[in-house]
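User: My notes are a mess, but here's the protein and NAP's SMILES. Can you give me a structure?
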Amino acid sequence: MQYTTLGRSGLQVSVAGLGCGGNSKLGLGTGHSEAHAVDIVRRALDLGISFIDTAQHYGTEAAVGKAIKDRARDSVVISTKLKVASRESGIASVAEVLAGLDRSLRVLGTDHVDVFCLHTVLPQEYDRVLAEIVPPLLREKEKGKFRFLGITEFAGRDPRHDMLARALSDDCWDVIMVAFHMLNQNARQRVFPATQAKNIGTLLMFAVRAIFSVPGRLQQDITELAAAGKVPKWLAEKKNPLDFLLHDQGARSIIEAAYRYARHEPGANVVLFGTGNPDHLAPNINAILQPPLPDADRQKLAALFGALEGVGLDEIIPRR
Ligand SMILES: NC(=O)c1ccc[n+]([C@@H]2O[C@H](COP(=O)([O-])OP(=O)(O)OC[C@H]3O[C@@H](n4cnc5c(N)ncnc54)[C@H](OP(=O)(O)O)[C@@H]3O)[C@@H](O)[C@H]2O)c1
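Assistant: No problem, the inputs look usable. Here's the predicted complex:
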């Protein structure tokens, strides 16, 4: 494993982070047991992963808690998240947020988390979240319940990263989570310049998601993009539109290319990957540890897809 610093938090973290959400939810999302989920986390830790991203909303905090119970607490960086706003109920009350933080600590079986993130905040919710939720939460931080405050975007509903662009002008966020992948590169212009200038810890999500893991899905999206004139038509005629990435000096699979691509983007600290399949742990870590894709391949990805927005950001991944 390779380790890096999570921006101004100073936390030392593995460059590959285990995501406990997405469709897989450590396997809980695809019908597996909690014991299976606990085993995935333990195996990830044994492979050198030291950054775990969970959330109250995922239902995976209990499995993470069981997996870390017999480990030294300071050997693993735990990040969890709480949804504080929704279209149905507006902004949560301070009491609800504080109860949510305490519930996460209880379920995780720890007296503190390293990073506490506000989950999927939309641009139109941001000002109220900042004014009403952040000040009382920072008082909980002073009490030691969490070490660093973070915020994550709602990728599918905020494809231009408007919430993060706004949040990055405030000083309270130590860590952010942003969607970035080979066909969704606009964080390069809209997010990474500010995270790098301010040294904000940056977690990447959606590196693979459905677009690169569900068979046929990439071709389907490319066909739709070609029909809309957003990518060249010849790409849609290919069985594997990204086959130019697969060669001796390049990647061995599209999934490997996707994780490598995200890992080496300037501004990325941790690439999260989500899985419920123990056989995917080592290959994904190995992909993230590979060198950057060759320059020519990266340039081709930028030329073909650099202007796309909102591609491959599904909230729910269709079943295979
Ligand atoms: N707004 C937010 O806060 C937010 C939103 C989205 C995600 N996240 C976080 O980011 C994490 C990563 O996102 P993600 O879950 O979408 O992860 P991802 O790594 O981009 O995609 C995971 C998907 O790819 C599949 N996959 C992974 N490795 C594979 C392999 N080697 N071969 C074939 N298929 C593979 C997984 O299925 P298998 O189970 O079969 O491996 C899963 O369906 C989440 O777990 C969550 O922690 C946060």
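The pocket of NAP is lined by residues 19-24, 53, 81, 119-120, 152-155, 177, 205-209, 213, 255, 272-277, 280, 283-284, 317 (CB under 6 Å).
User: Great, I'll file this with my notes.
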